[in-house]
Design goal:
single chain; 71 residues; alpha+beta; Double Stranded RNA Binding Domain; three-stranded antiparallel sheet; 2 helices; 20% strand; elongated
């Protein structure tokens, strides 16, 4: 499964003074960074780990949804 196929939601946190990125299709999968680029890079790593951990635990990995389907 291609981790880069998942939609990302990028938001700025005033409280933490960083960008927070969430992956809506994967419960609890998120990361943060001082820059948008850093936050996205950290999220790509979190995505890979989330998928790897789910597979090792025998948990099904949801297919990436498409933004148009959510609108």
């Amino acid at each position: 499964m291609n981790a880069k196929a998942y939609e990302l939601i990028i938001d700025w946190s005033d409280d933490d003074q960083c960008y927070v990125v969430k992956v809506p299709d994967l419960s609890g999968c998120m990361a943060h960074g001082k820059t948008r680029q850093q936050a996205v890079e950290m999220t790509e790593e979190a995505l890979k780990l989330w998928i790897e951990t789910a597979k090792e635990a025998g948990v099904s990995v949801p297919k990436p949804s498409k933004f148009a389907a959510l609108a």
